Amino acid sequence: MKSSQIPAAFVVAAFIITLIGVSILVLQQPLQDEKEHNINSSQAQRIVLNDSNVSMYYTTYFHVQDWRVNRTTIVNGNIPDRYGTPIMPEEDVWKVEIMERSCACAGIKPIYVIEGYVSADTGEVINITTKKILETEYDASTCASTACH
Fold first, then answer.
1. Sequence-ordered list of residues with C-beta below 8 angstroms from that of 113, at least 6 positions apart, any chain
2. Where does residue 30 rank: exposed (0-12), middle (13-18), buried (19+ CB within 10 A)?
3. N or C: which terminus of the chain has fewer CB atoms within 10 Å of its end residue's CB?
4. For 53-71, what is the mean pLDDT?
5. Interior/surface letters 118-148, b for 16+ CB within 10 angstroms, e for the rest
């Protein structure tokens, strides 16, 4: 290698090392977000499903995995407490949504919904509800995500 090419090689090597470092940080960011909570999204979902009323509802109405949508996200702002009254929790809260269509028929159909709010710090259940509701009244994307029509 000529001595005039050495500085260019160092610049390229530094660029590649920087690019790799940034890529590693970006890829690990979701893991770090998950780790900053005492309760992770999977644990929050298990906490909701372990509730005795939810467990019975799930066993009764949830039968077809392909018709189901599970979502667990951190929510900000007002959430309903056990009595439906909006509250503003001081800690982060997981919103767990488990939804399943009642059939694979075309058109807007009822879905079974389990919705729970769990403290990301303590695992305390703030609110859990179960309901049967039309897709359009709950979440139109549920139907599209299960490719039913």
1. 97, 98, 99, 129, 130, 131, 132, 133, 138
2. exposed
3. N
4. 93
5. bbbeeeebbbbebeeeebeebbeebbeebeb
